[in-house]
Design brief:
Blueprint: E1 2-4, E2 17-21, H1 28-38, E3 42-45, E4 48-49, E5 64-65, H2 68-76, E6 80-86, E7 89-94, H3 95-103, E8 107-111, H4 114-123, E9 128-134, H5 137-147, H6 152-166, E10 174-178, H7 183-205, E11 208-210
Parallel strand pairs: 2-8, 2-9, 3-8, 4-5, 9-10
Antiparallel strand pairs: 1-11, 4-7, 6-7
Helix pairs in contact: 1-7
The structure holds guanosine-5'-monophosphate.
Length: about 210
Amino acid sequence: MVQNSRNLSSPIRRGMVFIISAPSGAGKTTIRSLLLRRNPRLAFSVSHTTRPPRPGEKNGKDYHFVSREEFLKLIRRRFFLEWAEIHGELYGTGRPALEKLLSSGKDVLVEVDFQGQAEIKKFLPEAVSIFIIPESPAELKKRLRKRGTEKKTELLARLEWAKVELSKAKYYDYLVVNKERKIISAVHQIEAIITAEHCREKKVRGLISFQS
Ligand code: 5GP
Protein backbone atom coordinates (compact mmCIF):
# COMPACT_ATOMS: atom_id res chain seq x y z
CA MET A 1 0.00 0.00 0.00
CA VAL A 2 1.26 3.47 -0.80
CA GLN A 3 0.64 5.91 1.98
CA ASN A 4 0.91 9.65 1.70
CA SER A 5 2.21 10.82 5.05
CA ARG A 6 2.03 14.40 3.74
CA ASN A 7 -0.28 15.93 1.25
CA LEU A 8 1.54 15.46 -2.05
CA SER A 9 -1.15 17.24 -4.01
CA SER A 10 -0.97 20.35 -1.86
CA PRO A 11 -1.02 23.26 -4.34
CA ILE A 12 1.67 25.19 -2.50
CA ARG A 13 4.78 23.43 -1.27
CA ARG A 14 7.48 25.49 0.35
CA GLY A 15 10.35 26.24 -1.99
CA MET A 16 13.99 25.38 -1.41
CA VAL A 17 16.96 27.69 -0.94
CA PHE A 18 19.94 27.33 -3.30
CA ILE A 19 22.94 29.35 -2.21
CA ILE A 20 25.30 30.32 -5.00
CA SER A 21 28.79 31.68 -4.37
CA ALA A 22 31.60 32.45 -6.77
CA PRO A 23 34.60 34.72 -6.88
CA SER A 24 34.06 37.99 -8.79
CA GLY A 25 34.45 37.32 -12.49
CA ALA A 26 33.47 33.63 -12.38
CA GLY A 27 30.41 34.27 -14.54
CA LYS A 28 27.79 34.02 -11.80
CA THR A 29 25.57 36.85 -13.09
CA THR A 30 25.24 35.32 -16.57
CA ILE A 31 24.54 31.90 -15.07
CA ARG A 32 21.89 33.42 -12.81
CA SER A 33 20.07 35.17 -15.70
CA LEU A 34 20.02 31.97 -17.75
CA LEU A 35 18.74 29.93 -14.80
CA LEU A 36 15.94 32.41 -14.12
CA ARG A 37 14.94 32.63 -17.77
CA ARG A 38 14.80 28.85 -18.18
CA ASN A 39 13.13 27.96 -14.86
CA PRO A 40 9.94 29.84 -14.01
CA ARG A 41 9.74 28.14 -10.60
CA LEU A 42 13.03 29.73 -9.64
CA ALA A 43 13.27 33.22 -8.12
CA PHE A 44 16.19 35.41 -7.11
CA SER A 45 16.66 36.88 -3.67
CA VAL A 46 17.67 40.48 -4.35
CA SER A 47 20.25 41.54 -1.75
CA HIS A 48 20.70 45.00 -0.29
CA THR A 49 24.06 46.70 -0.77
CA THR A 50 25.78 49.98 -0.11
CA ARG A 51 28.01 49.60 -3.18
CA PRO A 52 27.16 51.89 -6.10
CA PRO A 53 25.46 50.29 -9.11
CA ARG A 54 27.65 49.19 -12.04
CA PRO A 55 26.61 50.25 -15.55
CA GLY A 56 23.52 48.29 -16.57
CA GLU A 57 22.58 47.22 -13.04
CA LYS A 58 19.03 48.00 -12.01
CA ASN A 59 17.82 48.92 -8.55
CA GLY A 60 15.44 46.25 -7.26
CA LYS A 61 16.53 43.73 -9.88
CA ASP A 62 20.27 43.22 -9.32
CA TYR A 63 20.40 44.73 -5.85
CA HIS A 64 18.50 47.11 -3.63
CA PHE A 65 21.05 49.93 -3.62
CA VAL A 66 20.87 51.78 -0.31
CA SER A 67 22.96 54.24 1.65
CA ARG A 68 25.17 53.06 4.50
CA GLU A 69 22.87 54.87 6.93
CA GLU A 70 19.82 53.04 5.56
CA PHE A 71 21.66 49.70 5.71
CA LEU A 72 22.67 50.24 9.34
CA LYS A 73 19.06 51.10 10.17
CA LEU A 74 17.96 47.79 8.61
CA ILE A 75 20.57 45.89 10.67
CA ARG A 76 19.20 47.46 13.84
CA ARG A 77 15.67 46.41 12.83
CA ARG A 78 16.92 42.82 12.37
CA PHE A 79 15.76 42.95 8.76
CA PHE A 80 18.58 40.72 7.47
CA LEU A 81 18.88 36.96 7.61
CA GLU A 82 22.61 37.59 7.23
CA TRP A 83 24.87 40.45 6.23
CA ALA A 84 28.59 40.95 5.64
CA GLU A 85 31.14 43.63 4.82
CA ILE A 86 32.98 42.84 1.57
CA HIS A 87 35.51 45.12 -0.15
CA GLY A 88 34.47 47.88 2.27
CA GLU A 89 30.79 47.72 1.29
CA LEU A 90 27.84 46.15 3.10
CA TYR A 91 25.76 43.35 1.58
CA GLY A 92 22.75 41.63 3.15
CA THR A 93 19.97 39.13 2.47
CA GLY A 94 16.57 40.55 3.45
CA ARG A 95 14.46 38.18 5.49
CA PRO A 96 10.88 39.23 4.50
CA ALA A 97 11.25 38.92 0.71
CA LEU A 98 12.98 35.56 0.98
CA GLU A 99 10.29 34.23 3.30
CA LYS A 100 7.56 35.45 0.93
CA LEU A 101 9.11 33.71 -2.08
CA LEU A 102 9.61 30.44 -0.19
CA SER A 103 6.04 30.48 1.12
CA SER A 104 4.74 31.00 -2.42
CA GLY A 105 6.43 27.71 -3.37
CA LYS A 106 9.31 29.18 -5.37
CA ASP A 107 12.83 27.84 -5.17
CA VAL A 108 15.10 30.74 -4.38
CA LEU A 109 18.63 31.49 -5.58
CA VAL A 110 20.54 33.38 -2.93
CA GLU A 111 23.84 34.86 -4.09
CA VAL A 112 26.15 35.48 -1.17
CA ASP A 113 29.84 35.17 -0.31
CA PHE A 114 31.24 32.35 1.84
CA GLN A 115 30.45 34.25 5.07
CA GLY A 116 26.80 34.52 4.01
CA GLN A 117 26.77 30.85 3.06
CA ALA A 118 27.94 29.83 6.54
CA GLU A 119 25.38 32.10 8.24
CA ILE A 120 22.47 30.88 6.12
CA LYS A 121 23.42 27.24 6.71
CA LYS A 122 23.27 27.94 10.47
CA PHE A 123 19.65 29.06 10.26
CA LEU A 124 18.57 26.93 7.30
CA PRO A 125 20.66 23.73 7.36
CA GLU A 126 18.52 22.30 4.58
CA ALA A 127 19.67 25.04 2.17
CA VAL A 128 21.80 23.66 -0.67
CA SER A 129 25.08 25.42 -1.40
CA ILE A 130 26.81 25.57 -4.77
CA PHE A 131 30.22 27.06 -5.45
CA ILE A 132 31.01 28.13 -9.00
CA ILE A 133 34.67 28.14 -9.95
CA PRO A 134 36.24 29.42 -13.13
CA GLU A 135 38.26 27.04 -15.27
CA SER A 136 41.57 28.59 -14.16
CA PRO A 137 42.97 31.60 -12.27
CA ALA A 138 44.02 33.08 -15.64
CA GLU A 139 40.41 32.90 -16.83
CA LEU A 140 39.22 34.70 -13.70
CA LYS A 141 41.72 37.51 -14.23
CA LYS A 142 40.73 37.83 -17.88
CA ARG A 143 37.02 38.08 -17.06
CA LEU A 144 37.55 40.68 -14.35
CA ARG A 145 39.73 42.80 -16.64
CA LYS A 146 37.19 42.51 -19.45
CA ARG A 147 34.41 43.66 -17.15
CA GLY A 148 36.43 46.83 -16.60
CA THR A 149 34.17 48.14 -13.84
CA GLU A 150 36.83 48.21 -11.14
CA LYS A 151 39.74 50.59 -10.70
CA LYS A 152 43.17 48.94 -10.76
CA THR A 153 43.49 48.84 -6.94
CA GLU A 154 39.97 47.41 -6.58
CA LEU A 155 40.71 44.84 -9.26
CA LEU A 156 43.82 43.69 -7.39
CA ALA A 157 41.87 43.53 -4.13
CA ARG A 158 39.18 41.41 -5.81
CA LEU A 159 41.80 39.05 -7.23
CA GLU A 160 43.39 38.65 -3.78
CA TRP A 161 39.96 38.09 -2.26
CA ALA A 162 39.20 35.48 -4.94
CA LYS A 163 42.04 33.36 -3.52
CA VAL A 164 40.44 33.47 -0.07
CA GLU A 165 37.04 32.61 -1.58
CA LEU A 166 38.43 29.67 -3.57
CA SER A 167 39.89 28.20 -0.38
CA LYS A 168 36.33 28.00 1.03
CA ALA A 169 34.94 25.94 -1.85
CA LYS A 170 35.36 22.74 0.16
CA TYR A 171 32.63 23.82 2.59
CA TYR A 172 29.97 23.79 -0.11
CA ASP A 173 27.64 20.93 -1.03
CA TYR A 174 28.45 21.15 -4.75
CA LEU A 175 31.15 22.49 -7.02
CA VAL A 176 30.41 23.63 -10.57
CA VAL A 177 33.19 24.53 -13.00
CA ASN A 178 32.28 27.30 -15.40
CA LYS A 179 34.18 26.75 -18.62
CA GLU A 180 34.60 29.60 -21.05
CA ARG A 181 32.25 29.35 -24.05
CA LYS A 182 30.43 26.50 -22.28
CA ILE A 183 28.45 28.51 -19.78
CA ILE A 184 25.32 26.52 -20.62
CA SER A 185 27.01 23.42 -19.27
CA ALA A 186 27.33 25.09 -15.83
CA VAL A 187 23.64 26.04 -16.08
CA HIS A 188 22.70 22.42 -16.88
CA GLN A 189 24.73 21.18 -13.91
CA ILE A 190 22.95 23.55 -11.52
CA GLU A 191 19.56 22.50 -12.94
CA ALA A 192 20.55 18.87 -12.34
CA ILE A 193 21.46 19.71 -8.73
CA ILE A 194 18.07 21.38 -8.22
CA THR A 195 16.26 18.34 -9.63
CA ALA A 196 18.33 15.93 -7.53
CA GLU A 197 17.74 17.94 -4.36
CA HIS A 198 13.99 17.87 -4.93
CA CYS A 199 14.14 14.08 -5.23
CA ARG A 200 16.18 13.94 -2.01
CA GLU A 201 13.78 16.31 -0.25
CA LYS A 202 10.89 13.94 -1.00
CA LYS A 203 12.82 11.11 0.61
CA VAL A 204 13.99 13.13 3.62
CA ARG A 205 10.52 14.47 4.32
CA GLY A 206 9.08 10.99 3.95
CA LEU A 207 6.46 12.22 1.50
CA ILE A 208 5.80 8.69 0.36
CA SER A 209 6.16 5.65 2.54
CA PHE A 210 5.56 2.06 1.59
CA GLN A 211 3.96 -0.26 4.08
CA SER A 212 3.53 -3.98 3.71
P1 5GP B 1 29.53 42.25 -6.26
O1 5GP B 1 29.89 43.59 -5.67
O2 5GP B 1 30.59 41.74 -7.21
O3 5GP B 1 28.15 42.22 -6.84
O4 5GP B 1 29.49 41.20 -5.04
C1 5GP B 1 30.58 41.05 -4.19
C2 5GP B 1 30.36 39.83 -3.32
O5 5GP B 1 29.25 40.05 -2.45
C3 5GP B 1 30.03 38.55 -4.10
O6 5GP B 1 30.78 37.48 -3.53
C4 5GP B 1 28.55 38.36 -3.84
O7 5GP B 1 28.14 37.01 -3.91
C5 5GP B 1 28.46 38.87 -2.42
N1 5GP B 1 27.09 39.20 -2.01
C6 5GP B 1 26.10 39.73 -2.75
N2 5GP B 1 24.99 39.87 -2.00
C7 5GP B 1 25.30 39.41 -0.77
C8 5GP B 1 24.55 39.27 0.45
O8 5GP B 1 23.38 39.59 0.56
N3 5GP B 1 25.21 38.75 1.52
C9 5GP B 1 26.52 38.36 1.45
N4 5GP B 1 27.07 37.82 2.55
N5 5GP B 1 27.24 38.46 0.32
C10 5GP B 1 26.64 38.98 -0.77
